[in-house]
Amino acid sequence: MITFTDQPTHPPYPAYNNTVVRFKVTDEEATPTISTITVGGVSFEVYPDSNGEFYFNFKNIIPSLINKSNFADNVPPPNGNWLQTDPDLYHELTAEFTFILEEGEPEEASMTLPFLKSVLQKGQRRHVNSDIRPLDHSISQLSQVTYFEGMPFDVSIYSDTEREVTIRNAKTQMQVTRTFEKGVNRLFISSGANKAPESFENDVPLYIGVNDLEFIVDGDVRFTLQVDKKPAECGQLLKWFNPSGGWSYWRFSEIYLETTAARTIERLHGDFDNLDNSRWNVSITGKDVERERLLRSGIMTANELEYVKHIVAAPKVYLFVGDLHQPYEKQDFIEVEVSGRMTTSTKPKMKEIELTMLMPTQYSQTLW
C-alpha cells in the first residue's frame, strides 16, 4: 500500500513555490527500490532514503507547464462576452506513481494537483475562500479595486468548479447570473467603451464612487468586490501580472517626465582621400535609442498602495496606448519594463508612488 506522508495543503497551489510530496510503501514485506513519476508523458525517477521514504518537488516542472505563454496576456478583447476563461492562469497536473519492489508486482498510485500561476511569500496569509475568490492582494471576503472609467479593466476570479454565480450591485440591487468555469475567469468590467453592446455595465450599471458587487452562490454571498469607479480622465494606464496569478490595473498621471538616451552602436575610423576632398574620418553604424518615463500614481489610499506596489516585481507590464472611451484592440497594449526604483510617500493622508517605466527599444536606421 502506498501512503503519502506529506503533501501540500490549501489548494490551488502556487506554481512558483515548492510543491513537495513525500511517500512510501507501508507494506513491511515490500521493499521499494525506485519510484517512477510520470507527468504528461515525461518520467522522473527517484530513490528512497534510508527509511524507505521518497521525495519529489513539482516546482521543478510545473512552471514550464503553466507558463508556456511567457506571462503574455492571450485573452482577446471582449466582444459581447464580458466573462471569459483564461487557460494560461490555471493548470491541473496529474502524476502517476509507479513503485518497483524487490519482490512482487509493481505498485501504482496517482495524484491530481491544481495550480495557479501565482507565488506566495513566507508569512503571507492566505485568502479565507478556497472555492471562489478574486486573484488580487485581498485575503478576506472583501476585495477593493479601483476602476478608471473609459479605460480597459478586468478582474481575475478563481473557481474550483463550474458554478452559477449571481453578481449583484448592492447599491442598485441590479444583478446578472453567469456560469463561471473551473479555473480562472476574467470579468471584463470595461473594454474601454462603457456602453458597448452587451457590456457588463449594460447588465449591472456602476455609478461614480464605490459600488459593492456581491458574488452570490446558492443564495450566499461568497465575497464582495468593492469597485471604486473614477470619472473618465486621460492618463498612463498600466496593466501588470500580479503575484496572486491575475491581472491588475492602475491609471498614472497624464503628466510625466520623459528622458531619451541615445548610444552610438559602433564607430568606423577611416580617411582615404586628399584633405580637400575629405568630409569625414569617423562614421557611425547607427544609434541605440531608449526612452524612460517617470510616472506618478497620484494620491492613493492605503489599500490602493498595497494593490499597486506589486507592479515593481511583476514579470509582465503593459502600457495602454489606445483612446479613451474606445473599445481596445490587442495591439493597444504594448509591453514595457518597470525599473526597480519606486519611491513611496507615506505622509499623513498622502500616499503616492513614483516609478520609472522603460519604453520599448526604439527602431533606428543602421548600416546593417
Task: Give a quick summary of the entry.
The protein has three helices and 26 strands. The chain has 368 residues and is mainly beta.
Distance between the termini: 66 Å
Which regions have little confidence, pLDDT < 50, spanning 5+ residues? none
Order of helices and strands: EEEEEEHEEEEEEEEEHEEEEEEEEHEEE
Number of DSSP E strands: 26
Side-by-side strand order of the widest sheet: 19-18-24-25-26-23-20
> Level of helix content?
under 10%
Total count of domains: 2
Note down, in words, how this protein is organized.
With 368 residues, the chain is mostly beta strands. The chain folds into two domains: 2-80 and 88-116, Immunoglobulins (Immunoglobulin-like, Sandwich), CATH 2.60.40; 132-256 and 290-358, no CATH class. Helix content is 4%, strand content 48%. The chain has three helices and 26 strands. The chain has helices at 62-66, 200-203, 302-308, and strands at 2-6, 13-14, 20-25, 32-39, 42-46, 54-57, 83-85, 90-101, 107-116, 132-134, 142-148, 152-159, 163-169, 175-180, 183-191, 209-217, 220-230, 236-241, 247-252, 257-264, 267-269, 282-284, 287-296, 317-320, 333-345, 352-358. A seven-stranded antiparallel β-sheet has the order 19-18-24-25-26-23-20, covered by helices on one side. A hairpin with a 5-residue loop joins β13 (163-169) and β14 (175-180). The chain is flat.
